[in-house]
Specification:
Oligomer: single chain
GO cellular component, one term: plasma membrane
Number of strands: 18
Protein name: Probable inorganic carbon transporter subunit DabA
Keywords: Cell membrane, Membrane, Metal-binding, Transport, Zinc
Cofactor: Zn(2+)
Helix content: 40-55%
GO molecular function: zinc ion binding
Strand content: 5-15%
Structural class: alpha/beta
Strand order of the largest sheet: 11-10-15-16-17-18
Number of helices: 31
Distance between the termini: 61 Å
Shape: globular
Amino acid sequence: MRATMRESMKQFMGEPAAMDATTSTSQQSFQYRDALKRATDAIAPVWPLDQWIAVNPWWGLKHQPIEQVSHDLNRRAGQPMTMPAQFYRHAWETGRITPHDLRQALRQGSYAFSEQRLVDYLALPAKPITSLCSAWDILEAQTGFDPIAESCASYFDQHQQRWASCSVPSLYYAWKKTVQHDLRWSTEQRCSLQSLPDNAAAASEQVAADWELTPDAFEVLAHTLLLRVNGWASWCQGISWHTPEQQKEAGISQLVAMVLAWEWLGVRQLNQQQKSEWFAQWQAADAALTTHYDHEALWCWQHAYEVGYQRMLAATLTAPSTSSPPAAQVQAAFCIDVRSERFRRHLEQAAPTVATLGVAGFFAMPVTDAAIGPERALPRVPGLLKPTYRVGATQPQQQGVKRYQKESQRQSVRHAKYAPLSTFTLVETTGIAWGWKLIKDSLRKQAPVAQCDAPAGLFHTYDGEPIARHEKIALAKNLLTLLGNLTAPLLVLVGHDSQSENNPHHAGLTCGACGGQGGGMNARVAAALLNDPDVQQSVQQMGISLPSAFYVLAATHCTLTDRVHIYRDKQMPVGLEAALTTFESGVQRAGEATRLERASALGVDETTHVARLKTLAMRGADWSQPRPEWGLVNNAALILAPRSLTQGKMLEGRAFLHDYHPSEDPDGKVLERLMMAPMLVASWINLQYYASTVVPELYGAGNKLLHSVVGGHVGVIEGNSPQLRIGLPEQSLRDGEKLHHEPLRLTVVIDAPKERIEAILKRQPVVADLINHRWLWLTRIGDEGVECYTPQGWQPVLAD
C-alpha cells in the first residue's frame, strides 16, 4: 500500500530541487523507500521483559567500522561510543593502561598519533559535543510534551491500561486519530497532520517528496529522528523478530512515519530563513566528513584499554598448568555463561574426579515451554532462533486443571486492577487479601530454589504431533558433537537460573541461551533424550563414541546462591550412586567457595558459609533489593578451546567458556557453528553491557528505583517519562560510587589453525564484518602464544 509521490514543492523549502530533474517519480519513490529501509535497519530489536535477552544495539550497523558508527552517533544523537578522556587518564595513571598497551594499539590500529601526543591529549579540556538539530526541538519547546513516546506507551500498554482503547488498524493511524482529541495540539497542527495520508508508507513518501532531500540525507534524518525515541524504535523493530504477525500494524515502519510527520509539522512552523538553514544542514548531513581529532584519539585509548586486558588474559592462558586431574567419574556440562566459570573452577578443585564442559545452556534443544495456565508459551532458545518443538504438559490432568484455574484467577485479578471502575471496587473487595500477601512477601526470608517439572515429551510446535525417531537422533547427535569426547559413565547437564522478587529485569539474570528463562527445563529434555537406549545405539552407529555404561542427569545452578539442584532419576543405574555422591559433595563445596569469591563485590561480609548463603538467599526474596546479583558484569572474553587450556586458571568470572577440540574437527564445521552461534550471542551480551556503560542515556535503562513496567512485559519507563528504557539499569553496572563493569569489546580466543579460521571468515560475511570492523577482537592460540588477527596479519599480543 504505497502512494505515489506528489509534485515537488520547491517553494515550501525555498531551495532548488535536490534530485536530478531527469529522475522519475517512481525512481525517487524507490530511492526514498530504500533510504528509509536503511535508516530503520540501523535500529536493533529488543525483546519483552519476560523473554529478555541481551542485544547488540548496533547490530544493524555491523557492516560499518565501529569508529564510523561512533562518529555518526555522536553527530546524530550527541552520544559518542567511548568513555570520556578522564576515564582513560585514570587508567593510564594507575597502570591499567601501560606504555606497551598504547604502543600495541598504535601498531594494530594504524592511528595517526604519536605516543606523546596521545598522552598530552588527556590533559586537554573536554570540547562540547555538536550534534545535528531538528525542528523537533522547536516543537517540543513549544508544546512541552513528547507525543511520539506518549502515544507508543499508550498503544502498547495493552496489559496495564486503565481505559480500553477501541480497535485500530495500526500504530500510526491510532496516533493520527488520537491527536484530533488532544487539546495540547494547536488547531493548525491537528489540521496539518490530518492532511497526511492515513497509511504510514504513503505518509512517509509524501513527507520525503515535500522536503526533496537527497536519499542519503533523508536516511540520516530518519535515523536521527528514530534515535530521539530509541527505546520505542527498538521495541517496534523487535516486533518483526519475536512477534512478526504484528509487524504490519505496529512495526518500525509505523513509527518512522510518526517521527517524520512530527518533524514535518515542526518544519512548517519555521520561517523562510530557518527552513533554508534546516534544509542546508540535512542536505550536507550525509557528506563524508573528516573524523574529529578528539574522536580518533579516544578510540585509540579505548583500543589500548582493551589491549591491556588481552595482555593479562594471554599471560594467564599461556602459563603452564599445575595439575593433572585423574580420570573423570563424572562429566558436568555447564552453560558458557561467565558466572559458570568461577563455579567450574571451584568444582574441579573440590572434586578432582569431576570434569567440566562448556556448551550453550539451551543444550541444543530448540523448545518452547507450553506451561499449564493461561499465560503464553515461552521460547527456551537463543533470541536469534525459533523453537521447533514444544515441551508437553508435565502435570497429571486433575492437578493441571487446578493449576490452570489458579493461574486464570490470578490473571483475572491482574486485569481487573486496571479496569475503569477498579478504583471504586477492587480495593474494597480484595484489599485485605492483597495486604496479607504484601505482609507475607515482606516476611519471607529466602527465595525458593528455582526448579522445573519433568517433561512429558516433545511435540512439533506447528501441528502438535510427537517428534519422530530420526528427529530425536538428530537432536542427540548435534548435542553430543558440541560436547565432544565423553568418557565418564555419568554426564550431568547443568542449566542455570536466578532468584529475585519484584524485578522487571529478572529474565536478564537467567539464561540468555534459553531466551531469558531458566536452563533446567532444557537440561531435563536433553537428559531424557540422551537416556533413550534407541537414541544411544543410533548415535553410536553414526560414529559418536559413548562410554559402555552411560547415563545422563539434569541439574540447575542458581547463580544468586550458587546452590545446585540435581533432578534425581530412579532409572539411574545403582552402580552410579558413588559417582553421583561425589558430584553432590563437590557442588556443595564449590558453592561455598564461589560464594566466598563473590561476596565482597556484593557487600556481603558474613564470615561463615551458612550465614553467607542465608544472606544471598535473602537478597533474592527481598523485593526492595535493586541488585540481587551482578549478573554478567565484567564479561570480556569468549574462549573456544579444550578445558585443559583454562583449567585451574583464574579468569575472574569474565570469560565465556565453550569446549572446542581442534583435533576432532579437521574440516572446521564445528568451529564454524561455534563462530556463527555462541560467538554471536556472546558478542551481543558483551556489546549490550558496553553500550549501557558508555552510552547510558541512549542504551541504558536508567535508575531501577524509578522504573514502571509498560504493558505487563513490554519494558520499563523511568519516572514520569514516556520514553521506553532499554538495556541495563544503573544498578547492574555501578554500586552507587564506582563502575563495576569494564567497557571492553569481546576478545575471542580460539585454539585452531589460522587457515581454518580464515577460511570461515571467507565463508561467513557476518562474522567477517564483526571482526574486520572491530566490533570484537579475534585471537588464537599459536605456537608463540596468543596472537591477534589484524588487517596486517596475525600479531602477537604480548610482544613489544
